[in-house]
Amino acid sequence: MSAAQLPKVSGEALNLTKSMELLAQAEAIVPGTTQSLMKRPEQFAYGSFPVFIDHGDGALVTDVDGNQYIDFICGLGATTLGHNHPAVVEAIRNNLDKGLIHSLPTEVELRATQALIDIIPNAEMARFFKTGADATSAAVRLARHLTKRERIITVGYNGWHDHFMYYTPGVPAVLSQYTEQVSLMAPHEKPNLIAAINKHGDQLAAVLLSMPYKHCLDTEYLNEVKAACHAVGALFVLDEVVTGFRLALGGAQEFYGVDADFVCLSKGIAAGMPLSAIAGPKKYLERLSDLQVSTTFGGEMLSLEVCYEVINVYRNTNYFEHVTKLGQRLREGVNAKAEALGVALRVCGYDAIPFFAFAPDMPTHARLMEALLGTLAKRGVILRRDVNFLTSAHTIEQIDFTIEAVAQGLQELLDRGIIESTNGKEQVAG
């Protein structure tokens, strides 16, 4: 492996001068400083973590101050093939002169749709949008239309639109009557979803389920949820915005052998280009034509060209085996180092979507992960506080580099008294 594939680091405090200058500008003109809540500085380690990225290549990114990092944030999970992947770059370059969007449909809409339904279990039709929230909102409207009911149950984060974030400022209070959010963050919460389905009974249009990332569900449970939905006449919808194109070629449906009524997809669908979709059987999806579900940019050509090419990459390479193998190595390596130190940190969940868990209560977890993220950034690794991502561009050497960085970062936090050891060890074995 060439040295260029590992970050150049000093281990000293980062120079973040330009990042902080740009942040000051952003605070003056951009509400929330950036376009996504999950990219705000307070989501990471303010003052010891980069704020602005300049460019990326493969699994490495460089911030505006010239610091390099192995990237496990990966565009919040969108860049499944890493940064600057040839399939993405060439699809854009080879089709740019055709235009971006036209006044009538284009052939690539059909080609990309067919490629998608060829790999998604039970999909016979699909419609494209731009963001995950577009797709999940279309799914909610379709479910309400099909069932002639209004209430929904949501699991996990399904987007920022009113029917999902009914408890936030600016949303009419009446919407809380139509949505119930059920947590599946811990295994002991699993019965709560079945109980909620039975409680709402003939008022329920659909359950929209995004897989929890801290622990893995199982086929038996998902079939139980589906059966409970169908028993009351509701639809079982999988939000695969994150799990799609990560767990298996056909997503969680293929991974678990479970058939949803329809699914929502985004992020990896075009490896970072803005695209999302809803896909499923014709008997359901054809009813979208009854609805005012329409978007100008759903037919934007470059994203669709990239989608088509990226699906070919997924189908014709060892992508899924690769990210799973790397995730397993990361999980086993970090957990062994943390255990040797007597530190509570553990990597858990799906290997392709590693979840870093420090403590069961969120305030303690957030505080400790913020400290760890700061120590890792100066060692050339950037992580999120919880869910992270592997890509086709990550290598075994980068995973091993990261495991050692985590071990060194934990040792630093022990030395500084920020975390405590349960076994009194002062050095990392190996």
UniProtKB/TrEMBL annotation:
The keyword Transferase applies. The keyword Transferase applies. It comes from the Bacteria. InterPro entries: Aminotrans_3, Aminotrans_3_PPA_site, PyrdxlP-dep_Trfase, PyrdxlP-dep_Trfase_major, PyrdxlP-dep_Trfase_small. Belongs to the class-III pyridoxal-phosphate-dependent aminotransferase family. The lineage of its organism: Bacteria, Bacillati, Chloroflexota, Chloroflexia, Herpetosiphonales. This is 3-aminobutyryl-CoA aminotransferase. Keywords: Aminotransferase, Pyridoxal phosphate, Transferase. PANTHER family: GLUTAMATE-1-SEMIALDEHYDE 2,1-AMINOMUTASE, GLUTAMATE-1-SEMIALDEHYDE 2,1-AMINOMUTASE 1, CHLOROPLASTIC-RELATED. GO terms for molecular function: transaminase activity. Its cofactor is pyridoxal 5'-phosphate. It holds the Pfam family Aminotran_3. It comes from Herpetosiphon gulosus.
